Amino acid sequence: MTSSMFFNVTTFVYLISMLAFFAFLASKNKTIGLVGSLIAYAGLAIHTVAIGLRWKESYDLGVGHAPMSNLYESVVFFSWTIVLLFTYIDLKYKYRIIGAFVLPFALLGMAWAQLGMNTGIEPLVPALQSNWLLYHVITCFLGYAAFAVACGISIMYLIKAALEKEQSSAQAGGLMALFPPLKVLDDLNYRAIMIGFPLLTLGIITGAAWANYAWGTYWSWDPKETWSLIVWFVYAAFLHARFTRGWVGKRAAWLSVIGFAATIFCYLGVNLFLSGLHSYGGGGN
Amino acid sequence: MATTERSFVENVWDFFCSLKLTLFLLISLALTSIIGTVLPQGQLPPEYVAQISPAKLQIYTKLGFFDMYHSWWFITLLYVFSLNLICCSIKRLPHVFKFVSEPTLILGESLRNSFSLKQEIKISGSVESGRDNLSTFLGQEFGAPVVSEQNGEYHLFAQKSAWSRLGVYVVHLSILVIFIGAIIGSLAGYKAYVSIVEGTSVNTVEARNGGQIPLGFEVLCEKFSVDYYPTGAPKEFRSILTILENGQPVPGYSQVKVIVNHPLTYKGITFYQSSYGQASEGSEHYITVTPRSGGTPEKLAVQEGAAVTLKDGTQFRLLEATQEVRQFAPGFSGPAARVEVTSKGAAPQTFIVFKDFPDMNAQRGDALIFGYEGTNARMYTGLQVAKDPGVWVVWLGCALMVVGLFIAFFMSHKRVWIVVSKGHARIYGNASKNQAAFEIQFDAITEKFKQLKI
Ligand code: HEM
Question: pTM surpassing 0.90?
Fold first, then answer.
């Protein structure tokens, strides 16, 4: 079995898990929700094996390195961290329905990686031959994944808030009964960002340390660096908004969605639309 | 008069203390930073200047958009940001210190009502015995309490991790520390570049603005070499450097290998491997020409681009040479040269001759067999040079930030009060963060509390 077969299976399993969560949303049948979660866990396990296998395969090819060196590998790792965080939140807080809003991000990443990208294992260019690569990528992507989860939760918040406004609260039962209460969603959003923000901070710091070690400047206003700082500013604004009246709830949810949009731009947009030092650019076909 | 003046100063103070200003600044910094990622920064590429209208070019230049992170308005934003941070901390820190050092020992009526975590039991004994028993209880279950008396009631208070309230201020301080480090670096440090030809040394480097900066010592490039992947892509390029003081190698800094991601630092100045090339000026390449019919090989020494006429009248020209042919001719490796040969009365022929594959060279069916013997050209190594005495301050700031964030988000100030009155005792709890986790701990305490028979 090769890693690429495992990755294909992973993608398929995430698709099934997402569909199960949608069915859960439609049917409100708790068993279906549980099935969705269990399938997601299984997907995570297969995904983990696949990443480990790809790591080993790179050594078999004589160009051994951690599988985090190009766009394909980073998207795959990003999806993995999203499902990992979902698993954590699911086990800890037991609001299963969040899966319906988080799993699509992971599925999207895997599907795009498997269908649209060059999956070959490539040797590392000299600039990437450093342990800092590992620390930098892991912290950044764990942070990004936490923001993805926060974004999914914020979307739930916005949907629920909009529906409750429209209907009288008695009618709002129905589908919305599955959703955690607004206060809980707001709190979970904050908690996810409390995990993501320090990780992003660590990601920026390890990136700066690496740049300093490899090139002699810890900060050069390269577009990728600058965008990571923009993301950091947005979430810092989010954290402070909570202390100012009128900036909780809906506005906080919007800030979280905007923050994730900036995150995605930082991750992908910068490489697709802007130029700079980072290497995930030429990953297309 | 005096009052309006005072209120003006107060207004300015309030302005710089306000969290609305913080939000405005964070969002402004985020939005304006985008400009510099979209427009080219620094030296403008000529293609860009050609495609933008002159009016736009002028406006953008005036606004500092082409070096925006050093423009007056961006720097001003950062100064206001720092001021906001400092004012806000000056305003709040004393309160926080007081809050931590002089905790609320006596739980007033309004606070009692504001806490969601509470529990009550009946006590049959005297208030004093209740106080003593409950002090022991709280000491065992949570922390040794401070006991105060008011209106015949006893207030027992215990707290944990009160100092975690300061985490936020550690984060804020860390930002200022990083700024200070950056300022030190920009005032007392520099970024430069130097290229050193193998076997030679330098004692100055070239600053970004073109000026020469003396190093105060010499750097000798002993050797430079490149390794390749089987695909022909460079795997590792390395310079062997020696630092010389007064012409003598410095112990410990002799024959140091410098590769990408492994720089060399001496006296606060760091050399980073960044590029390389062949110092081709004036160098010669050696070509052998052997008649297929036998006879002594002829040896040529030619420069790149130069043409020679051989003994039999054949025109020979060396088009280009490389020390690693793999990326141009897959399946081959080592040094090779592309040559143009024009036999008398024939059309010019272009082909590659190899150093390490003489059989390939011989396979050509022509009357003359060409071989490549290499070159006396030397390599040069390109090094980035940086001096930044502020960098350790920046790392200190980063460390403070990580520690501060950890404290601010994941540690919590937990407080428990027990108010002992006649006939009953009430327990209250509060945590600054992560109320849910504290609730579990509090519930465990109250479970035992309810079992107490006093
Ligand atoms: C002009 C700049 C800033 C000002 C005036 C400011 C002010 C404040 C204030 C007043 C608080 C509330 C403290 C409390 O009572 O608990 C706070 C919280 C916080 N600040 Fe700042 N801040 C600034 C910039 C930043 C930045 C750039 C960061 C980035 C790391 C940051 C990180 C935090 C964190 C992590 C908290 C705690 C938030 C929470 O507990 O949810 N601050 N800030």
Answer: no
